[in-house]
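User: Fold this; tokens only.

Assistant: Input:
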Amino acid sequence: MIKSMTGFGKAELLVKGKKLIAEIKSLNSKQLDISAFKIPLPYREKELEIRNLVAQSIQRGKVDFYINIEEEEAGTALTINKDVFKSYYNQINAIARELDMQIEKEPVVQTILRLPEVFNSQKEDITQEEWDGLFDCITKALDSLNDFRYQEGKVTEKDLLHKVKLIKELLYQISSFEPERIEVIRSRITDNLSKLGNEVNIDKNRFEQELIFYLEKFDINEERVRLDNHCKYFIDTLNEEDQVGRKLGFIAQEMGREINTLGSKANHSEIQKIVVQMKDELEKIKEQLLNVL
């Protein structure tokens, strides 16, 4: 079963009066690219562990990762630092006297309360229970993301299977034109020789040998067999374990080589039309594979 690189996962968990929210979004990318990684400051000491957890689960894709905290209970006790407050107030009064300014106490108090270090904050240490809750929340968000990716993968797999089978059907249609194609090439050479008239002496035995050699150069049976095998291999690979995107991409490249060779050897308008149809389906397959893990 294949897995898409596109997905979204979210999880919420209540721990010690805090609501932890983990959100993860992923898009397609050749490598793992954690382009956005935002976690609250108190959790920064575990950033490396969190990054490793995300990387192991997602494996490949462009990732945006966020953790938010919603406080349901007061987790921080705030008190005014009187010494700092008085220092600010006295300095403001001193400046006002020097400049002969009148100041109003209430606006000054409001201003001082917004200045640095006026409040003492006593933050609680993060307990092991909170750490466990955080990683549990992240794991659930990652599981949600991967479930989304598998669902997207099912849709993509169905579409890829349909397109590969269509290429196989088009390939089988070529067989019906093969006798006509060979006869057209043979007739074209014979007609061109007849136009030369009696001025050229032709060794019929040598001509037949050269004609056979020439027709062998335009034989497409080998390409048809290889393309059919590549299609079968592609379908078999779809049923393998995850991370088959690159492998399927390589198989699609080989399919493209065989289709191109069929086109260059065709020398038949109807076969050329079929080749164009196969190329069209293959390009659609390649576009889908860009989003397959």
